[in-house]
Amino acid sequence: MIVKTLSSDHTIGWVVASFTTLAIVGLFLPNWVLNGTMFGLARGLAVLGLLLLWRTGLISFGHALYFGIGAYAVALLEKYTGVSDIFLRLAAALIAASVVGFILGFVLRNYRGIFFAMLSLAFSMVLYGVLIKSEALGSTDGFSVSQTTILGWQPETKYPLFLMIILIGALAAVGVHVYFRSALGHLTTAVRDNEIRVEYLGYSVARAIHLKYVFSAALTGTAGGLFAMALGQVDPDSMVNWTVSGELVFISVLSGPGSVAAPFIGAVAFEFLRTFAFELAPHAWQLIVGGTLLGIIFFLPRGLWSLMEHVLMRKERRRG
Amino acid sequence: MKKGMLHSGLLALALSAFTGASMVAHSAFADDTFKVAVVSFLTGPAAGPFGEPGRHGAELVIDAINEGTMPAPYDSVGFGGVSIEAMFVDESGGNAKQVAEYRNLIEKQGVDAVLGYISSGSCMAIAPVAEELQTLTVMSVCGTPRLFEGNNWQYTFRTQAHAVADSVAAALYIRDQLGDVKDYTGINQNYAWGQDSWKFFDIAMQKLIPGSSGSDSPQFPKIFAGQYGTEISTLLLEDADLVHSSFWDGDIEAFVLQASVRGFFDKKRFISVAGASAVDNLGKRFPEGTVVGTRGEYGILVREQEGELNEWFINAYRERYGVYPLESSYQYAQTVLALKAAMDKAAAESGDTPNKEQIIAAMKGLEFQSLAGNVSLTLGDGHQAVHPIGYGVTAWDDETDGPKLVDIRIYPTHCLLPPVNQMSEEWLEAAMPGADC
Fold it and tell me: What is the ipTM of this complex?
């Protein structure tokens, strides 16, 4: 069934083709664009984690918790064991975030709406507080992360890491898409619409949400790990603070819930928006970023993705 | 599938067109200028007392050197014959953002050197990236000794002495001027600078004033916390009558205002390592009789000091910005002077416009005249500055209707810092051998 889905689905073709194009374009991009794109795509992966929950009507204001756990897993792994291999780093980020997500899931799966959002926020600020207070965990300074190696090979450029990030991004996008298409995935919107009916159909709502929450945590944790590797630095204010969670929600709104590709486009757009705003107005760059969000909410309530949808629909019509 | 391919091709094309367009917009600048980014806090609580004065200090001196209007020995036009094009960048937003922006400065803006940085957090985060991108980076203000102790950076320099010197000078001043201090406590920010400052002050006090003892519960609020009600209560309940603080930025102003109204300064003696900016900014609201340092021969400490460079700087700064130059104005100007001295030296040696390697070689171990004293880059294999540091007591000058420092004592370099190749903490623990002060 999965094979059939894979072969007949446009979205997957899209993702594969985008991946190939990006991989080729990446070879010719100057370093700063490559860097910005890596930061953007890594954040996009985290936003994909948020999107998973958003489809069920759950919004987490605390996903910086998993972003931070992933980033700090990479940094602490290096600090205490000296490991800099990309696969071990990724495994550490993924496992750490999933385990915490699994444990917290038992609590969070019982809450909806604002309670879910605020409780997530509370958990993330607990981690923030712990990091700030503890000198062994770097306190407010954090750590620097050395350049990533691949099976003992130290690449000269950032391109291999870029390739790895788009590969993981593509795999995650396909994975989430397949999940949405599965029976369990179809439950997501059903749960949002009417939980009691879902229960009568014989599914456990709590279990479906818990599973989704762990997936979401794993994606966001991996994203945090990749971000730390791309940047070479972790610190609580840029990784765990509520502002980071806010940024992720910001990008979700900017991207729109329309497709699994939307978070990546939104996050890359956000990254470059911030870079240019910072350059144009070093005293007031926050104003430009905030103004853009207002503009999006007013004029594109379904996010940047709705622009794409618009283009697609017009094409369909012309063909019809 | 085919349609999908088409769409994604479009998408990727749009993405690359977007990024490509921005590339063209920021193509390289002319070759006859040396492009420098000056990083300081332009937004947030550190902008007023540190970031803006620092930026102004750098701006003033860069413009004067480009025009050749500075007094000797910096009266030649340009930096090794070339003029500097400066851009000013915000330091706020956290270490990760700073690292990302630093990469942008080098790889996108194509700057030749980066000057500045106030927070120790920024400096620690930037140094490894400077090394990776092989870019000359001269730091102005940050104080953690860990920057060069345990690290061997080639591309990073610092024209400001580190926290050990500030702490030892503070302890020396207390021994010489306050005499009978036995118990002391502290309030410091919970990050590299604050933790280091307290640690070194504590050791220096034990060694210089035998029998004195530090509190078991010094306060470590978060940087930029802004509210210190709890900490002030705790400090007031302690027996120790001397309170040490390495607060800077808006925090020192907030602390002083909040503590004043509770009579804190009537009950405790307060020594502020880096709070001189608040003396100017708060004016009469800053308590008299407080021990204040400027981390070097800067700001209010040298306001009355004679000397052509110093007098030129104070007058030109007042004329342009309408206020006295503060501690960070001197620190940023000092970094620019170091770059000027190194580039002139490199140009004299090579007989041509110096390249990056030549500038770095010239800067290593450089000795240069700063605005109100001399600085030499002797520690950290020629990358870390040493210079004298002084403290004074705040008083109100009725003549000028402004604050001033009295009982000023300036301690020479050999009293404050370990010799080359010795770690600060070992040197302090060994009761500062060689520093007979």
Answer: 0.73
